[in-house]
Design goal:
mainly alpha; single chain; 3 helices; elongated
C-alpha cells in the first residue's frame, strides 16, 4: 500500500534501512565482537603470558576462532541475501 502511494519515499526509506543494515553488518557487529577479544589479548600480553592463565588463553583462542568464523559467515550470507533481494 505504502509502496504504491508514495514510491519515492518508500524507495528512499528502503535505501536508508539498507545503509543502516550495511553499517551494522560490516562495522558495528565486528567491532562489538573484536574489541573485547583484542582487549583480552592486550591484558595477556601486558601480563607477560603467565603460565597459570594458559587455560584462559586457550579459551580465548577458541572464542576468537569461532567469532571470526561466525562474522565471515554472516557477511557472506548478508552479501548473498542482498544480491538476491536486489
Amino acid at each position: 500500500m505504502w509502496r504504491q502511494r508514495h514510491p519515492e519515499q518508500w524507495l528512499r526509506n528502503r535505501q536508508r534501512a539498507r545503509l543502516k543494515a550495511d553499517w551494522a553488518v560490516y562495522f558495528w557487529i565486528p567491532l562489538i565482537n573484536i574489541v573485547p577479544i583484542t582487549a583480552c589479548y592486550i591484558v595477556f600480553w601486558l601480563a607477560r603470558w603467565p603460565e597459570s592463565w594458559r587455560p584462559k588463553l586457550q579459551q580465548l583462542h577458541r572464542l576468537t576462532a569461532l567469532t571470526v568464523i561466525f562474522m565471515i559467515g554472516m557477511m557472506i550470507w548478508y552479501r548473498w541475501k542482498g544480491r538476491k533481494d536486489s
